[in-house]
């Protein structure tokens, strides 16, 4: 069994891709580094105070850093509750080589899949982590990268939880084995269009898979049954959220949360940029809490 389950101009949007504008220089912050591919790569690391039960790679949005993703998603507290070590890596040029071909690292041939895989191997050894409990989440560019990791390194990642990101239409996903997926996307996302098509992000334009179609891709790859849609409680924020779940082979479940009226944001997190720029943030659920619970009930 592969998995076990217990239960407003274009310029403005480009600057905001994946939620934050790029800082002029890299922010100094305490962190760690690993040399990979001839490049010094950095990351922020959080280790829970108690027993370690898994590893989460939490990937930042375009134009941002691992430290900022740590602050935005408040995932350290979630990790402590579940016993997860969390690494927040930094992308080259505040971006990821996520397969769309638009970012600087993509165009330069940076091997981010290799870098993150090497980081996982190092941390699994360093903290004696069960290699069957390795996960990835991320926002926008980080979500594209999380999807790519699942496509190429299904042998490493048991589950992913991408928020506001799919894959480029030019990228073929062919995982070696099933990966459980919990994806989230807002229908009013002004940066990564919910219905797919052209998008303009950090580094240039690309064409992306629609969010519902990306969920279908994972359902087909995982041998899932027909999905069931359940509305989440109304938070009174002017948006409605619906959770669409599928039972799948080897318990590699696929869950897709559609936020009707939701923007290019992390549900449950503080609103960082103006609503006019990135859209609204729902309070109906917390994407970090949901990802933590999902990871805790899925392993290889």
User: Which structural class best describes the helix and strand composition?
Assistant: alpha/beta
CATH topology: Rossmann fold
Q: How far from one another are the termini? A: 8 Å
What is the alpha-carbon Rg in Å? 17 Å
Helical percentage: 25-40%
Largest sheet: 10 strands, mixed
H and E string? EHEEEHHEHHEHEEEEHEEEHHE
Quickly name the level 1 CATH class.
Answer: Alpha Beta
Our count of helices gives 9
Named at the architecture level, the CATH assignment is 3-Layer(aba) Sandwich
Uncertain parts: 1-30
Mean pLDDT, to the nearest integer, reads 90
Strand content range:
25-35%
- By DSSP, the count of extended strands is 14
Strand order of the largest sheet: 2-3-5-4-6-7-8-13-12-11
Give the total of domains. 1
Describe the structure.
Pfam families: Esterase_PHB. One of its GO terms (cellular component) is extracellular region. A 10-stranded mixed sheet has the order 2-3-5-4-6-7-8-13-12-11, sandwiched between helices. Strands 1-14 form a two-stranded antiparallel ribbon. The chain has a two-stranded antiparallel sheet with strand order 9-10. The protein has 9 helices and 14 strands. The chain is 27% helix and 25% strand. Residues 1-30 have low confidence and may be disordered. The N and C termini lie close together (8 Å). By secondary structure, the protein is an alpha/beta fold. The protein is globular.
